[in-house]
Specification:
By secondary structure, the chain is mainly beta. The chain has 4 helices and 19 strands. This is Sigma-E factor regulatory protein RseB domain-containing protein.
Length: 336
């Protein structure tokens, strides 16, 4: 699943859900247990969306419980991408710095952005990867439900029917339940996206993605514990542990991401077409050419991979088309 600092919001969440849904989300969180519905003043849905997009980022510390129902295998070193429940803890200074701690099979990954450098520590092989911030923006805020939900709102708002369906309590905080459903003209595998919005700070506390034809969420990401306020600056400094192997790295060419992709369409039925990862990115990663089933069209031949809410075509000529859309929409995007 992907990686982005909590203050770098605004890139299309339609692609985020789609690519992450098939290639593997690194963090998919489940909401806290249901509680009493708080009594809150009525709010206009459009005004609620505007307030979320205009809200200041808050320094915070939180715990996230993750539930993944996409039906995908776990990625190497990232068990959170496989089906099931996992946990994480996150911290952010509300600006450029963040920290995430992710348990793995027999250890922990620690991800830190100090504002200039991204650090990734894997306790299992005692390896530290050090990457300039401009080259690696995604890992430290992947656990932040607020960032993920705000991206979704910005991307899906223009092509959605928006409503507020009551209130809820998430991580002990009162929230409005905002619902975005695709307009009738949208061709998508998604039924709706639900966002629990903090009544005080207007920060998304929980994001739920529901696929067409299912009452069970395909993706949920939300806080189970949350505390707003200044964080210890030491949390955002990283010193490699004694004996750790340090690797200095630049993002390799050929790494597929939303930033390097061509968007076809907009809103719910956006398809992103990008180059498949080069050989330097394949080591330890699933071989996409062996997943899914054979498919062909005017664009050539390849394989179709599907999950609960998304589809991907990996072509034999080295392209990837991904979106929360049916096969026909992917094929049309490749044929353009």
């Amino acid at each position: 699943m992907a990686t982005a600092r909590s203050n770098r919001i605004g890139r299309s969440a339609a692609a985020g859900v789609a690519v992450a849904g098939v290639v593997g989300l690194s963090l998919l969180a489940a909401p806290a247990g249901a509680g009493a519905q708080p009594a809150l003043p009525p709010v206009d849905p459009e005004e609620l969306v505007r307030s979320v997009l205009a809200a200041d980022h808050q320094p915070l510390a939180g715990a996230v419980e993750m539930e993944n129902g996409l039906g995908l295998p776990a990625m190497p070193g990232m068990p959170q991408t496989g089906d099931g429940t996992s946990t994480a803890r996150i911290w952010t200074d509300g600006d450029r710095r963040g920290r995430v701690q992710l348990p793995t099979g027999s250890g922990e990954r620690t991800l830190v952005s100090d504002g200039e450098t991204f650090w990734s520590w894997n306790s299992e092989d005692r390896t530290v990867r050090r990457v300039p911030e401009d080259g690696h923006e995604r890992d430290t805020a992947n656990a932040d439900p607020g960032a993920a939900a705000a991206e979704a709102l910005a991307a899906l708002r223009p092509t959605s029917e928006i409503s507020v369906e009551g209130t809820s309590e998430v991580a002990g905080r009162a929230a409005y339940d905002l619902v975005l459903a695709p307009a009738s003209s949208e061709r998508t595998l998604l039924r709706e996206v639900r966002v629990a919005v903090d009544a005080e700070h207007r920060m998304p506390l929980r994001l739920t993605v529901l696929g067409t034809g299912s009452s069970d969420p395909a993706v949920e990401i939300g806080f189970t514990e949350l505390e707003f306020g200044p964080q210890d600056p030491e949390l955002f400094r990283f010193t490699p542990p004694p004996g750790a192997r340090i690797e200095d790295a630049q993002p390799p060419e050929g790494h597929p991401s939303k930033d390097d992709a061509t968007a076809v369409g907009e809103g719910w039925d956006t398809v992103y077409v990008m180059a498949a990862p080069g050989p330097e990115r394949r080591e330890g990663a699933p071989d996409l050419s062996q997943l899914g089933r054979p498919i062909s069209g005017p664009w050539g031949s390849g394989r179709l991979i599907t999950s609960a809410v998304a589809g991907v075509i990996v072509t034999d000529d080295g392209r990837i088309a991904a979106g929360a859309v049916p096969e026909q929409v992917l094929s049309e995007a490749l044929a353009r």
